[in-house]
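Our preliminary data section would be incomplete without showing what the modeling component actually yields. Below, a chain of 275 amino acids is followed by its predicted structure, encoded as tokens that our downstream tools consume directly.
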Amino acid sequence: MFSAAFASGKAVARSKQATFALLALITACASPRASVEVAASAQLRVVSYNIRHGRGMDDRVDLERTAAVLRALDPDIIGLQEVDSAVERSGRIDEAALLGRRLGLHHAFGSFFDYQGGRYGMAILSRFPVRQANAIRLPDGNEPRIALAVTVDHPRYGELLVVNVHFDWVADDAFRYSQAERLAAVLDTVSLPYVLLGDFNDTPGSRTLDLFQQRAREADKPAERRFTFSSTDPKKEIDFVFAAPAASWVADTVRVIDERMASDHRPVLAVLRLR
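Predicted structure:
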């Protein structure tokens, strides 16, 4: 089981037994519409989407539009990056809670830092009940960063760990790689099957991606449509889905969704099975 005792960065480096505690800046709860009774499907529909706090390419913040994009993908698990909670620029909306209600999913939010009277960070939405929500503090880079980890109860597979990331974006990869190394050290202590997804802000062939390709199965995108950024002129592949243990997972389908308005990223859908 993924433990909830927090360890410092030094302890992570020293010990393979390091575990992590729930931070105060995590919120997790069920949507009123989310049902505990869910079908025990063999397939797990996973989406990663950097939503740019709901600000589309028309410069309008429209969470209903974001919800519509996600609803069409019929996801079981969603990792969202660039999520606001009570921030002025997005109308003081608790975006994770609103999207959870609109989609009928449980939600968890983790904060990077305070911003414009609220908090800015990331979220995970889940069709399945959330048992724990944990912040894994990553080394600070251009901005403070966490990885958001939740344990969910899948009716067929039991406990699964879902980890959402948004690594540093600056061109020099030193911050980004340091954050990836910290997370990789944590994942090396995990005994549960896990799904790792998010905006890695790095491309195939980078040392950041190589860390996770060594540890997990990448949900490979079709060569003809693998670019996820930008949504209007896609030339970079920086959003990914991984699953571990690598030998235990199969990716039935992986798609980059041709959505050009709701955000500056395109969502990634992976349909996975745990063998």
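Residues 45 and 75 are 5 Å apart (CA to CA). Residues 1-24 have pLDDT under 50 and may be disordered. Preliminary results of this kind motivate Aim 1 of the renewal.
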